[in-house]
# Entry
Amino acid sequence: MFARVVTVQIKPETVDESTRIYEESIVAAMKEQPGFQGTTLLTKVDGLGTALSISLWATEADMQSGEASGYLQAQFAKVGPFLTAAPINEHYEVSVQV
# Structure
C-alpha cells in the first residue's frame, strides 16, 4: 500500500470552508479513483492553517496515475483560493498500518 501526503497552508479564516470542500468534493473524487483505499485530513490548531491530507492507495501505480491524469491538480484547484503557498506532495510506502 502507498500513501500520498499533501501538506498545505490554508488561510486561517478559511480552514472550515476548506475542510468542507475536502469532505464534500475532494473525497468524492478520490473514491472514483482506481486503487483508492481511504483518506484522513489533519488540521493543526495553531492558528496558522497547516493541514495534511493522507490518502492511501493499493499500488504505487494507482497513486501516481492520478497525478499523470490531472486528477490531483483538479483537486488542488478546488482549494487553491484558500492556500497561502503551493501544496507539498510527497509519496510514501505504508510500512505498518493497524
User: Anything to note?
Assistant: The longest strand covers residues 2-9. The chain has a mean pLDDT of 95. The domain at 2-93 is CATH 3.30.70.100 (Alpha-Beta Plaits).
